[in-house]
Amino acid sequence: MKLSFPSKLIVWAVLLVAWFAQSLAVGNVLNADGVSYLDIAYSCVAGNWHALVNAYWSPGFPFLLALCIKLFHVTPYYEPLAIHLFAVASLIVALISFEYFLAVLLKIRNSDAIPRDTSQTPLSDRTIQLLGYTLFFWVTTFLTPPYLEQPDILVLIIFLLASALCMQLTLSSSAQPVWRYALFGLVLGLSYLIKAVMFPLSFAFIAALFFTKDRFRRLPAILLAAAVFIAVSAPFIHVLSKSKGHFTYGDAGAVNYLHIMGDDADITAGPQPFSLAHPQPAAAPHISEFLNKIDLGTYGPWTDPSSDYKGICPHFHLARQINRIHVVLSYYFELYIEQLGVLF
User: Fold this and answer.
1) Would you state the pLDDT for residue 100?
2) Do residues 258 and 266 make contact, with C-beta atoms less than 8 angstroms apart?
3) How far apart are CA 71 and CA 48, in angstroms?
């Protein structure tokens, strides 16, 4: 037995009240990432759409911010409130995506697609829904809160949609329409434009489609999904690679790896991060480093941090890598065992 509609309304109301309360409680605060995304968005509003071609900040989030700024005529004073309310609106879309995800999960769970152990009593649909809503509330309160000034909420939306579509295409015993494969590829392509990490992860989603009994019969449809994904992501990869002078789908991973591994000091040994097109001012020689980027935003060098790392190759340090693995595993232990112990 599933949750009744009135019960769902109560859950939705609790989520909405919590999100609005959190977004309004943080006040007029923006972090550095939020300022950079707003700078790119304002460049787009001014007609400089080339600002979206960025190897560090993915284009999807600032593009949507630019639409909101243009549509609602956001003034500088209300920038923090606007971006926080945008996060709340994104969480509402995430809730709709989660409802779709839950519906697909329960439908497949009650079908013959998954073999059952009749000797054990499975959890009821109501229990699964309550656990799901609880986990969703925790995620949208602590991991992707409504005051988040980054595209992670959009990633949550697209991940839920991709997961639900993948479940339908992989586990459904009946033949799926071709348009659903095309939609799956479109969702994966959009996910890459929202955050670069979704580009390699999309191949894992596509690979999951091959784990079906009739994979060879579905091969043309699977190839269609892959073709749509490539068609959506390839133009941005081409423009980005052309602007950077080398093939890349994004440099955020390399930049963060250099930063986390402590290779920032290697920058001084590499090529100059900026072309010094102007003579050095005698009174303030450090200013010359930023002269050719001063018009790119509130803090020019943060508009595309990957340019500071141009020509620097990441190096593998075993001791540092083991240390970082230890730090990350400790974080996940705290996340899943200490904070989510009951649900886990």
Assistant:
1) 96
2) yes
3) 17
